[in-house]
Specification:
By secondary structure, this protein is α/β, with parallel strands linked by helices. The chain has 12 helices and 19 strands. The protein is globular, with a radius of gyration of 23 Å. It binds S-adenosyl-L-homocysteine (SAH), iron/sulfur cluster and FE3-S4 cluster (F3S).
């Protein structure tokens, strides 16, 4: 788009990887209207705040950011279109319009294919638009192909929504029911991403391993099909649920070398009592067995997980069961959170809430253990040679940055011609959140 038609779009993204993917797709939908990405919200023609509702004071955070954006909108004489998208918009859309009437558009995660029409309606003076229903049509059938060049690593949503209803979680309410995209659409989008420069694709879903292709098998089968795409070097998937880790998927870890040996498999707790209260529908031993099967299939597999401390009813001995599970499994990396009551979820109304100070204490103990494991895992990488996929320039001049198979950031001295390629790197040092290495040979592996 040229001349007067050019408009500037700034998207602010909070929350999970799926929100990152959605933000990109919202930009794709708006590109035919002349919207090009703007690095800053100041003076933009449109700003989208893509929100997350998972924890803490999600709504308050949104209102304080909207206060800042309101001033920027006023500075444009009110011309800027302000949209709130994502999971807070889905859960609290009406409240957003009531408390922040200067917002033009409120849209949920399942309606953003309708953005052009929403923008047209909002552009008529004084109109506000709210679209937070779960529409009968599938948004993926209405999204254009991404027109912007891809980075070396890309996300691809294959499954969305959740039917599991864990006691603590808002996702089934904000994203809706579990839905799998058809195989053909996924293969087409993956091929397009690779043609635009992607070399590593991470398949996304709230329960990505609940994906099913009708009669055509599950995620294990899909990974085999994706591995055939010429030019694609690496595959990952996130986030998976222990209950959906079937034999075909475990076998995929054995049989597909380009499926990276790093898996994010949230367990939340090591106590069977709390796992039951959470409605996770598996035990700590089930988790141990799954990890055993995975490690048998792929001995170098490194694991990551999510943990919640202080779920209602969690006693000190429940918490200690979580610490024991962590010690037994050994995680390369993990996320951990204090339980945060979410409006409308079953656990929020439970009587036995754990006091805040005790949640703080447990979180500190848990995080110290996880940090120790991460440090040990990274230290164990020193001296090893591993393939690194280079993704961009490093922090310092003359450096390039990439990712190890275990998703660790790796920095080496090297030239940009390696970006987009896999090269063998000897790891020589560890930093708190990254590795330093040297090129074993200048030659690309792929
Ligand atoms: N679908 C994934 C998790 C998605 S939410 C799964 O089933 O594992 C990402 C993480 O946020 C969860 O794994 C959980 O650890 C954390 N989380 C979700 N709701 C939370 C809450 N109310 N309080 C604290 N942490 C929460
Ligand atoms: Fe939330 Fe549980 Fe669904 Fe994960 S499986 S998205 S934690 S309800
Ligand atoms: Fe947040 Fe919604 Fe993702 S609540 S974690 S943005 S699914």
């Amino acid at each position: 788009m040229i001349g007067n038609n050019l408009k500037r779009l700034h998207v602010i993204t909070w929350g999970c990887q799926m929100n990152v993917y959605d933000s990109g797709r919202m930009a794709d939908v708006l590109a035919p209207l002349g919207y090009a990405p703007a690095a800053e919200p100041d003076g933009a023609d449109m700003v989208i705040l893509n929100t997350c509702h998972i924890r803490d004071k999600a709504a308050e955070k949104v209102f304080s950011e909207l206060g800042r954006l309101r001033r920027l909108k006023e500075a444009t004489g009110g011309r800027m279109i302000l949209a709130v998208a994502g999971c807070v918009a889905q859960a609290e859309g009406a409240e957003i319009l009531a408390r922040a009437p200067y917002v033009d558009i409120v849209l949920g995660p399942q309606t953003y294919h309708r953005l052009p029409e929403m923008v047209a309606r909002a552009s008529r003076a004084g109109n506000t638009v709210i679209e937070t229903d779960f529409p009968p049509e599938d948004k993926f059938d209405h999204l254009p192909e991404s027109a912007t060049p891809q980075g070396v690593t890309a996300f691809l949503t294959i499954q969305e929504g959740c039917d599991k209803f864990c006691s603590f979680c808002v996702v089934p309410y904000t994203r809706g029911a579990e839905q799998s995209r058809p195989v053909a659409a996924i293969l087409r989008e993956a091929g397009h991403l690779v043609s635009q420069g992607a070399r590593e694709i991470t398949l996304l879903g709230q329960n990505v391993n609940a994906w099913h292709g009708g009669g055509n098998g599950g995620l294990g089968r899909l990974l085999r099909d994706l591995a055939e795409i010429p030019g694609l070097l690496r595959l990952r998937y996130a986030t998976s649920h222990p209950r959906d880790m079937d034999d075909a998927l475990v076998a995929a870890h054995r049989d597909i070398p380009m499926l990276m040996p790093f898996l994010h498999l949230p367990v939340q707790s090591g106590s069977d009592r709390i796992l039951a209260a959470m409605n996770r529908r598996h035990t700590a031993d089930d988790y141990r067995r799954i990890v055993d099967r995975l490690r048998e299939a792929r001995p170098d597999l490194a694991l990551s997980s999510d943990f919640i401390v202080g779920h209602p009813g969690e006693t000190v001995s429940d918490f200690e069961a979580t610490l024991s599970l962590i010690r037994e499994i050994g995680f390369a990396q993990a996320y951990s959170f204090k339980y945060s009551p979410r409006p409308g979820t079953p656990a929020a109304g439970a009587a036995a809430q754990v006091p805040e100070a005790e949640k703080d204490r447990r979180l500190q103990v848990l995080q110290a253990l996880l940090r120790e494991q991460q440090t040990r895992f990274n230290a164990g990488c020193v001296g090893l040679d591993m393939p690194v996929l280079f993704t961009g320039p490093g922090r310092h001049p003359g450096q390039i940055a990439g990712r190890s198979p275990f998703l660790q950031p790796v920095h080496v001295t090297g030239t940009p011609h390696l970006i987009g390629h896999e090269t063998m790197v000897r790891i020589v040092d560890t930093r708190p959140n990254s590795l330093a290495g040297t090129l074993v040979q200048e030659r690309r592996i792929a």
